[in-house]
Design a protein that fits this description.
With 110 residues, the chain is mainly β. It has 1 helix and 3 strands, in the order αβββ. The radius of gyration is 34 Å and the shape is flat.
Length: 110
Amino acid sequence: MPLADLPAQPPAIEAPAFDLAQLAQDGGPDLRVVKPRCPVGRAGEIVVCAQNPEKERLRPLPDMYETEEGLPRAEVGLGENSSLGVELESATLGGGQVSNRAMVRYKLKF
């Protein structure tokens, strides 16, 4: 296509300046993702706030809570003489490296 046949460029449209900080100063909506945890004080007032140390603290379990020894075996019977199970094991390789692996085992009794 020759250059003379190309359409003229549309005029550039200048977008108005947009600044989130200016929006907040103008009394617009609060667009912060994390809300402030401390209240805003009045003029000349000092506001002191801190995190609640009890908020995420884990409490000890009551004495009546009992646990079984370990998890049950992850194994399913496929018939009278066969089963399929999943196990985790660890083995030491040469040079002191440790191989942690998940094994799927098929057992067939004969």
